[in-house]
Specification:
Elements (H helix, E strand, L loop, with lengths): L1 H22 L9 H30 L4 H4 L14 H6 L3 H4 L8 H9 L3 H23 L4 H17 L8 H6 L5 H7 L9
Helix pairs in contact: 1-2, 1-7, 2-7, 2-10, 7-8
Length: 196
């Protein structure tokens, strides 16, 4: 239900932005319905990238990834089929999950690949909802096959991560790296084909 809620909220944000742009005084940009739609889509994308970046930083902090965050970690995922966080933080933090000097052992690999993190799971659900919505947008706005393939591939990776799988890497690849996409979302508004 969380993923569905994220998906629906994205549509509501876009429709609300489109409506607010409709209420603005008309002009060469906001007077055009297509331009209002593109701007509303941009507002939604920028909002999602900001939330993904925040969730990514939060998830990384819950894993004890950066020293400045490790002191703020709450052990909320213990007993949910995942890692017992008090053991992780009493030991070497991420070194425990990465296998430390036992990185080549089966246990080190399994801990790195299959442990559960609630923060990462939330980020995975948001990514899956975003990729689904953006795939629909890509088809509706005729963005091209490259964008369709990107959303399919990233969405498929998010589906695999639901198992759980690679939750250790989700904070960076589904969260923190999306902060750079903020700039792309702004630049695309000025693109000749996709922009206003």
């Amino acid at each position: 239900l969380t993923g569905l809620a994220y998906f629906l909220v994205m549509w509501v944000v876009e429709l609300l932005a489109k409506y607010l742009f409709y209420l603005c005084p008309t002009g060469p940009i906001l007077g055009n319905a297509r331009h209002r739609g593109i701007l509303a889509r941009g507002v939604n994308n920028i909002s999602c990238f900001l939330v993904m970046g925040f969730f990514g930083l939060q998830a990384l902090g819950s894993l004890g990834g950066w020293p400045s965050h490790s002191a703020k970690v709450m052990a909320t995922d213990a007993g949910k089929g995942g890692v017992v966080w008090t053991e992780v933080f009493a030991g070497e933090g991420l070194g425990f999950l990465l296998g430390g000097d036992q990185a080549s052992t089966v246990y080190g690999s399994a801990a790195r690949l299959y442990f559960y993190s609630g923060q990462s799971q939330r980020l995975v659900l948001l990514t899956l909802a975003f990729q689904t919505k953006n795939f629909i947008d890509t088809v509706l706005h005729d963005d091209g096959i490259v964008f369709m393939l990107h959303h399919i591939a990233t969405g498929a990776l998010a589906v695999f991560a639901l198992q759980p799988y690679l939750h250790l890497y989700a904070p960076f690849f589904f969260g923190i790296s999306e902060i750079s996409a903020l700039f792309i979302a702004v630049l695309v508004l000025f693109d000749e084909h996709h922009g206003i």
